[in-house]
Amino acid sequence: MQQQIRKSDMQAILDLNMDLVHVNKDEEFNAIFDAMSKVIPFDKATLIHVSSAPQSSQSLSAFGLKVVSKNISRDKQKELAAPEYLLNNQDLYYAINQQEPFWLSHSGECDFGILGQNNLIASFSSPNSSNNTVLTLDCSHNEASEVFSKIVKYLLPSFHEAIRRSPHILDEQISPREYDVLQWIKEGKSTWEISKILSISERTVKFHIKNLCHKLNATNRTHALAKAIQFRLIDY
Question: Which pLDDT tens digit goes with each residue over 156-171?
Answer without folding.
Answer: 999 988 887 766 555 4
